[in-house]
TrEMBL record:
Predominant subcellular localization, coarse grouping: cytoplasm
Record PROSITE patterns: FN3
CDD domains: FN3
Protein name: Cytokine receptor-like factor 3
C-alpha cells in the first residue's frame, strides 16, 4: 500500500489522518508559527497605521503652512496697497493744491492791472456824465446868461481833455489760463502698478542644515530659485520662547556659526536674501528649529595671566608677568568635531607661544610644546609631543582662524608603533593645512585645549 493509506474492509484505499490533527486540525508547531505570523501582521499593521498617521500630520502641517502663509501674504498685500493708495492720494492732493495756488497767483497778478484800468475808465465815465449834464443844462438856459455859462463850460471841457482815452489791452495780450495734463503719466503709473509686487510660492533661499557645535549651531542655507541672483544673505535667530528675531549675520557667505547658544534650548533660525542691485530683502525662509546638546567650550578661570569674557570662551593675555598655559575648564573636545580658535587681537609674538590640544592638564609648563600635546605657534610652527614638524603653517595674524580636526584610527595588536591608538590630526590655518598621525599610549575619548602667550595683547576665541 502507498504510504499514508490503509486497507478498508471493502478493499478501498483510505487516507490516514495523523492523531494530532484529527482533533485540533494542526500540530502545535504549526499553530505557533501561525500565531507568530499573526502577531507580526498585527505589528506591521500597527506600524503601517502609525506611518500613515504621521503622514496625515505632515499633510496637516503642510496645509496649515499654505493657509497661514497665504493669509499672511493677503494681509501684507492689502496693507501695502492701502498704504500706497493713501500715499498716492496724499501726493495727488498736494500736487493739486500747488497747481491751484499757481492758478490763483496768475489770476490775481493778471487781474490787478485790469482793475486799475477799470477804475480809470469808470472815473472818466462819471466825469463825462457830469459834463454832459452840465452842457445840456447850459444849452437850454435863458439867452441873457448863456454866454458866460457857455464860456465856462467850454473851458471846463477843454480842461478835461475829452479826446484822451485810456488804452485797454487786447484779448490776445492778456493771460488765458489753461491746464496742461499729460496723459502719459497715467500710462506710466499704470504700467508701474501692473508690474508692482510679485507673489512667490516659496522663498528663494532655504535653510539646508543645522549642525550643533559646542555652545553654538552651524547654520547652512542654499538657493532654491535658479532665477534669483543673490548679493547678500541675512540670518536671524531667536529662542523658541522669544517673540522677536534678531539679526546675527549679514554677508555673502552661505553658512555661519551662531555662538552664545545655551545648551539643550530650542532656537529658531530663518534666512532671506537681497537680489543683485536691489535694496529690498526677499521673503524669509521657513523657520527651522535646532538645538545644541554639546557643552560650550570654556577656559579655566583664575589664572593670573589671563582675563576671560563673561561666557569664558574668550581669553585675553593681560599685562601680568605671570606665565603659564591656560587650559580648558574640562576635556570638552571630542574626536570627530572641529575645534576652532579665532585670533581677535594680537600682541608681540614669541616662539614659545602655543595654541592646541592635549591629553591632560600639566602645570609647571609655559607652553603646549611638550609631550602629550599637539599645537601651533604664532609663527606657524607645528609641534607634536614637543617636537617641531618640518611642515609649517602661515603665521597667525589678527582675524586668523586655526582649526583642529581629529579622527581616531585604531592600530592592530601587533603594530610596530608602540601604541594601541592613534589620532589623525588636521590643523588648518589661513587656507593651508598639515595632516599627521598622533600616536597615543591608550585610547582617549576627549581632550583638553589650551593656549599660552608670552606677551600681552593676544585675545583668542574658542568654539
Amino acid at each position: 500500500l502507498a504510504s499514508g493509506c490503509e486497507a478498508s474492509p471493502d478493499g478501498c484505499c483510505q487516507q490516514r489522518v495523523p492523531a494530532a490533527r484529527a482533533g485540533s486540525g494542526m500540530d502545535p508547531e504549526g499553530e505557533a508559527l501561525l500565531l507568530q505570523e499573526a502577531r507580526e501582521s498585527v505589528e506591521a499593521a500597527r506600524s503601517y497605521r502609525r506611518e500613515l498617521q504621521q503622514r496625515l500630520r505632515g499633510l496637516q502641517q503642510a496645509r496649515k503652512q499654505i493657509r497661514e502663509s497665504a493669509a499672511l501674504t493677503r494681509d501684507v498685500l492689502e496693507q501695502h496697497f492701502n498704504d500706497l493708495k493713501g500715499t498716492l492720494r496724499k501726493l495727488l492732493d498736494e500736487r493739486l493744491v500747488l497747481l491751484l495756488q499757481e492758478v490763483d497767483a496768475i489770476e490775481q497778478e493778471s487781474i490787478k492791472p485790469l482793475d486799475e484800468c477799470q477804475k480809470l475808465i469808470e472815473h472818466g465815465v462819471s466825469t463825462a456824465d457830469d459834463l454832459l449834464q452840465e452842457g445840456e443844462s447850459v444849452i437850454h438856459e435863458v439867452m441873457g446868461e448863456q454866454n458866460e455859462k457857455l464860456c465856462n463850460f467850454t473851458k471846463k471841457a477843454l480842461h478835461i481833455q475829452l479826446d484822451s482815452l485810456p488804452e485797454v489791452p487786447a484779448l490776445v495780450d492778456v493771460p488765458c489760463l489753461s491746464a496742461q495734463l499729460d496723459d502719459c503719466l497715467l500710462t506710466i503709473v499704470k504700467n508701474q502698478i501692473f508690474n508692482h509686487g510679485t507673489v512667490a510660492s516659496r522663498p528663494p533661499v532655504q535653510i539646508e542644515e543645522l549642525t550643533e557645535k559646542p555652545g553654538g549651531i552651524l547654520v547652512r542655507w542654499c538657493k532654491v530659485d535658479d532665477d534669483f541672483i543673490p548679493q547678500d544673505y541675512r540670518l536671524q535667530y531667536r529662542k523658541s520662547t522669544a517673540n522677536h528675531f534678531e539679526d546675527v549675520y549679514v554677508g555673502s557667505e552661505m553658512e555661519f556659526i551662531v555662538l552664545h547658544i545655551d545648551p539643550n534650548v530650542d532656537y529658531q533660525f530663518r534666512v532671506c536674501a537681497r537680489g543683485d542691485g536691489r535694496q529690498e530683502w526677499s521673503p524669509w525662509s521657513i523657520p527651522q528649529t535646532g538645538r545644541s546638546t554639546l557643552v560650550p567650550h570654556e577656559w579655566t578661570a583664575g589664572l593670573e595671566g589671563y582675563s576671560l569674557s563673561s561666557r569664558r570662551n574668550i581669553a585675553l593675555r593681560n599685562d601680568s608677568q605671570s606665565c603659564g598655559v591656560l587650559y580648558s575648564k574640562a576635556p570638552t573636545y571630542f574626536c570627530g568635531q572641529t575645534l576652532t580658535f579665532r585670533i581677535e587681537t594680537v600682541g608681540q609674538p614669541d616662539k614659545r607661544d602655543s595654541i592646541g590640544v592635549c591629553l591632560e592638564q600639566q602645570n609647571g609648563y609655559d607652553s603646549l610644546q611638550r609631550d602629550k600635546a599637539v599645537c601651533i605657534s604664532t609663527n606657524g610652527a607645528v609641534f607634536v609631543n614637543g617636537k617641531e614638524m618640518t611642515n609649517q603653517l602661515p603665521a597667525v595674524t589678527c582675524g586668523s582662524t586655526v582649526t583642529f580636526d581629529m579622527e581616531v584610527v585604531h592600530l592592530g595588536p601587533n603594530n610596530n608603533e608602540g601604541g594601541n591608538t592613534k589620532l589623525r590630526v588636521t590643523i588648518s590655518s589661513n587656507n593651508r593645512e598639515v595632516v599627521f598621525d598622533w600616536v597615543l599610549d591608550h585610547s582617549c575619548g576627549s581632550l583638553y585645549f589650551g593656549c599660552s602667550f608670552s606677551y600681552p595683547g593676544w585675545k583668542v576665541l574658542v568654539f
